[in-house]
Write a structure and sequence with these properties.
Layout lengths: L2 H4 L16 H16 L7 H15 L10 H14 L2 H18 L7 H15 L5 E3 L2 E3 L4 H13 L4 H15 L6 H20 L4 H11 L5 H15 L16 H24 L4
Antiparallel strand pairs: 1-2
Helix pairs in contact: 2-4, 2-6, 3-4, 3-5, 4-5, 5-6, 7-12, 8-9, 8-12, 9-10, 9-12, 10-11
Length: 280
């Protein structure tokens, strides 16, 4: 908190911004982009800045390449999108910029994309914006424990392509602010659990895999095993979400967020326990 906030002269922020962005937040988000862009404008990184500017003009704003104006005109459009666009347009533009940073990075700017990711997340946290950047996608997560659960699982599944791809897809579907697909995000999250359990036990379904975890050397409390068996049943039986019985009205953002975080945490647990038992 600032001095004035600590002394009670002004009120600290207390409301998370999820479907709006105030002017102060927009200004700091633009400043984040402006500062990072400065790191790609020196002579050695000029090609990176040129490539990003062209990508923003042609891919983000969807304009003809032969009509691209001078660079500052393009960046004026970026600033306008962040400062004056709808809140989701501002976040879309910032997310796209971050992806282009990663895509066009070279030997002179290889540290810049990660610097941007960290600075953006720090800004989002400071201004209580209900999204965090995870694997280049802005996901509707804001509390530290939820973010850590997802990022830890993604780190641990680097060499487990099946589970990692399911988690990434679940994150992408949840992160889509215009056409979110919550039912399929939930399906992908539970599929990540199924995949990592299959890696440890060799069983093709989560139900069978859970029963075999103990035999494989991973102790799972009966209550926890029962909870996950019921979770699997909820998603997989004739009325389950993986049979399209749960539609968009039933699977909302809060449920999809819960499933992503819960499944990510369980994936991490199975991997860490599996490594201790030398199963992974």
């Amino acid at each position: 908190m600032s001095f004035a906030e600590r002394m009670g002269f002004t009120s600290p922020r207390s409301v998370t911004q999820t479907d709006a962005l105030d002017t102060e937040t927009r200004t700091e988000l633009w400043n984040t982009v402006y500062v990072i862009r400065g790191l790609t404008q020196d002579a050695m990184a000029y090609d990176v800045d040129t490539a990003i500017t062209a990508a923003i003009w042609a891919w983000y704003f969807k304009n003809a390449r032969d009509e691209q104006p001078r660079d500052e005109k393009v960046w004026g459009l970026v600033k306008s999108a962040i400062m004056d666009g709808e809140w989701f347009e501002a976040l879309d533009c910032i997310e796209a910029y971050g992806k282009y940073l990663h895509r066009f990075s070279n030997q002179f700017t290889y540290q810049v994309p990660d610097t941007f990711d960290g600075l953006l997340n720090a800004t989002l946290e400071r201004y209580l914006v209900g999204y965090r950047l995870i694997e280049r996608e802005l996901v509707p997560l804001s509390d530290d424990m939820s973010i850590a659960a997802v990022t830890d699982a993604l780190d641990l599944t680097v060499q487990l392509n099946g589970a990692r791809n399911h988690l990434l897809r679940a994150t992408e579907l949840l992160a889509d602010r215009q056409t979110p697909d919550y039912p399929n995000s939930i399906k992908e999250a539970i599929s990540a659990v199924e995949s990592v359990v299959a890696t440890v036990t060799g069983e093709g379904t989560l139900g069978a895999g859970l029963r075999k975890l103990k035999t494989a050397g991973i102790e799972l409390h009966p209550a926890l095993e029962g909870a996950w068996s019921k979770m699997y049943g909820w998603t997989s039986d004739a009325q389950g979400i993986r049979h399209a019985a749960i539609d968009q009205a039933d699977a909302d953002q809060s449920l999809a967020k819960y499933m992503l975080v819960a499944c990510s945490a369980f994936v991490s647990y199975v991997i860490e326990a599996g490594r201790k038992s030398e199963l992974i």
